[in-house]
Fold this sequence. Notes:
The protein is mainly α. It has helices at residues 17-20, 46-49, 61-68, 82-110, and strands spanning 2-5, 12-15.
Amino acid sequence: MYYKFSGVTQKLTGSAPAAAYSPQGLRPSVPAESPAMVFATPTKMVSEAGSTVEYLGTNRVPDLQRLFQTADGIPIHLKRGVPDRLLYRTTMALTIGGALYCLVALYFAAQPNKK
């Protein structure tokens, strides 16, 4: 059995399948004409674009693969030099500082209130 919401009784009522799939007066229809274009430049269809894809920059993946796959004993998160070391040390300092701050806050929270 199919149900639809009745606008009169504000309850679910039994209905035919066609009425149940077209709720509240919405009827499937095809627009008579296509909508106007919003943008000034038309978009390209996939078949029109061709097989070549234009990138904004050069492909750096082979260079980075060569850099990261060298066996020089440096951890992968430090292979790019000074910026990686700076980010790593900043992260470690913030982590240790946050842990110390939590311990101090826990110490103060454990102390009884002095009136």
